[in-house]
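Following up on my earlier thread - several people asked me to post the actual chain instead of describing it. Fair enough. Here it is, all 189 residues.
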Amino acid sequence: MDEIYSFVYKGQLTEASLDKIGRLKNRHLLQEESRTISRSLCIDLLDQDLLADSQRMAIVYSAIHTFENMVRQLVMKAMAEEFDVSWWEKVPERIKKKVKTRAEEDAKFKWHGSRGSTEINYCDFGDLSSIIVTNWSVFEDILSNMEWMKQLLGTLERSRNIIMHGGLLDKEDIERIGMNIRDWVRQAG
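Reply from S.P.:
Thanks for posting it. Predicted structure:
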């Protein structure tokens, strides 16, 4: 126990020391990284009106992207708690086949980054709903209402797909996304 206390205490001292000498916080790092990425992508050469539209949608996409990965984490956590390491065996066969094909395709292009290190990273957003429905007994206490869950994830998937394929969402669609994310977080935590 003393070793754990000592380890944690040393970590806290290190954090405090880094802050004291002016360590850049995540927000500052993100700003600098954004400038670097913009230069790498030659943003200044792009159509500025189209760029403004995409930047508006990028904010929406960031929310949906984060939400989608929160759902992935929920699925993995709940399934692993119920079925331990063999939880992937409880995923519908059609999803497992699609995931296997995508992972094999990614492996061919070693020069390019992959979707992730676990099978669930290769699932479509809609696949997450299918995994939940197929294993509803695992999620019922968390989500309570299957139809509500399917409708909410389906609506967010529609918005996600519009943004991912170059479309623009209206103010009402953006507000609906926010309402759905808020409702999910209140329900699922």
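The chain has a mean pLDDT of 90. That should answer part of your original question.
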